[in-house]
Amino acid sequence: MPVYEYYCSTCKEKFELRRSMADMDAPAACPHGHADAQRTLSRFIALSKNESGYLTHELGVGGSGPVQ
Ligand SMILES: [Zn+2]
Q1: Phi, psi dihedral angles at 31 (to 5 degrees)
Q2: How many Å lie between the centroid of ligand 1 and the Cα of residue 17?
């Protein structure tokens, strides 16, 4: 079963979860019990969905942002 990365907006932390592809986009419970964690999206999807703000931050971490 593949491992997906999720982000809890309450904890402001990412965590990994092993689940089936059928469930990969369903909200997940974070290790602290918050049930509203969302799957982190790959950068090409993030371009069209950034309303929550954290995806923009993730892009910076991914190395595609300004180097200097
Ligand atoms: Zn949480």
Answers
A1: -60, -15
A2: 13
